[in-house]
Amino acid sequence: MSVAQLERTLPTAWYRDPAVFRTEKERIFCREWIGVCREEQIANPGDFQVIDVLGESVLVLRNREGRLRAFYNVCRHRGSRLCRTADEPVAAGRVALAGGITAGRLIACPYHRWSYDLDGDLVAAPHLGSSAFNKQDFALYPVGVDSWGGFIFLNLTPSEAKPLAAQLGAIPERLRRYPLADLRIGSTIRYQVAANWKIICENYNECYHCGAVHPELCAVVPSFRDGGGANLDWERGVPHREGAYTFTRTGTTLRRAFPGLNEDEQVRHKGELCYPNVFLSVACDHVAAYVLMPRGAERTDVICHFLFETHEIAKPDFDPSDTVDFWDLVNRQDWTVCEAVQNGIGARVHSHGYFAPMEDYNLDIRRYVRDRIGAFMPENAGVI
Fold first, then answer.
1. Which residue has the higher pLDDT, 65 or 97?
2. Mean per-residue pLDDT, 18-23
3. Which of 4, 65, 277, 287 could bridge across to 307 with cysteines, CB 3.0–4.6 Å?
4. Which of 145, 143, 152, 144 lies closest to 274, judged by CA?
5. What span, in angstroms and rounded, lies between the C-alpha atoms of 291 and 303?
6. Which one, of 86, 33, 70, 37, lies nearest residue 307 by Cα?
7. Residue 346 in contact with residue 312, Cβ under 8 Å?
8. Does residue 383 carry a pLDDT above 50?
9. Cα–Cα distance measured from residue 282 to residue 321, given in angstroms and rounded to the nearest whole number
10. How far is CA 24 from CA 191, 205, 263, 276, in A?
11. pLDDT above 80 for 377
12. Across 88-92, average pLDDT
């Protein structure tokens, strides 16, 4: 095979340079719809989460009518953070201050007690008369929020946002028979991966590596190994070995298949990458959902939710470990090889890699990123 038959990856600097990462933050992660969590995690009026999107703190909540709302987590008065995350520690020698969402009704700033309702409107500013200023001019900065399939998506530049449906494209149609919105979290694993987010996307988008990296996975899905993972029919679904139909060591489970799946979907699985940061691996009885949160040019947090039917979760003997343990092994294999790539491309002789023909889906991430940041790149960040 000649070099002419191979396609170049993005330049090495695009996976390592903090300047490139800053450009990606502004041109991709602050302008595209970003998957952040499941609706069940903010299920009731007054429920909220504070979510970090590449250093931007966002408050996501349900208002008193149960509608999702999202705002930058910053007071309009002097810029104080409004709410803390549930697990955010108080720094040594400091004290916890009152504030945040109080009684599920108001968002109170801990600094001067400016208070906002759950639609982000300023309703109280202590000791300032009603004629001092127009409260309507001081609503919280909005963040776009929408949902699909039980996933909550944010857009940090809502004035320029296209509809979420336009970004998802054909994905909802391809997965229409899977009850994504009705599934619930049966288990969650959080990973810290010392690799650029694009390397993780590229790894997810091909199975050329599966034979070498995932022997247990290939024992259940031999087509991942055969021919270097070439010619996989993702739209129809990828078949398991004879007698297997899901992702466990045995390829079987006691859980039922989702009602409404067609004949193929009961014995095959599908995978989707919802650019830029949500992966879905969809089997007949569960969904492994990955949410990528880039933390720097060479670090990415990955939240993996394992989703099941409430019918199954409600059973006294519900045990997701057959699937969770299997995927955890596959995940750790992937993170190890992604970190090896991140380390390897730091070599002074490495200017770019190559995609083999069976890695054609990887070209999606190259085009996706280039189309969004190519015109904004620093001159010293490499060329395509």
1. 65
2. 96
3. 287
4. 152
5. 5
6. 37
7. no
8. no
9. 17
10. 22, 20, 41, 11
11. no
12. 76
Nearest to 232 by CA among 262, 206, 266, 200: 206
pLDDT at 368 over 70: yes
The structure tokens listed for 377 are 């790149």
Determine phi and psi for 102, rounding to 5 degrees: -110, 125
* Cα 96 from Cα 88, distance rounded (Å): 11
Identity at 107, one-letter amino acid code: I
Both ends of the chain: CA-CA distance in Å?
Answer: 22
Side-by-side strand order, sheet with 151-155: 34-38, 151-155, 144-148
Give the neighbor-by-neighbor strand order of the sheet with 115-117: 100-102, 106-108, 115-117, 122-124
Measured over the CA atoms of residue 6, residue 7, residue 11 and residue 15, the dihedral's sign is negative
Residues 6+ apart with CB under 8 A from 92: none
pTM here is 0.94
**Residue in the block written with tokens 């992937």:** 334
**What are 268's strand-pairing partners?**
239
Q: How far is CA 38 from CA 127, 152, 154, 255, in A?
A: 40, 6, 12, 22
pLDDT tens-digit series, residues 144-180: 999 999 999 999 999 999 999 999 999 999 999 999 9
Q: Which two tokens stand for residue 353?
A: 């890699």
Q: What is the DSSP letter of 134?
A: -
- Looking up tokens 């810290």 gives 192
The first and second tokens of residue 82, run together, are 């409004």
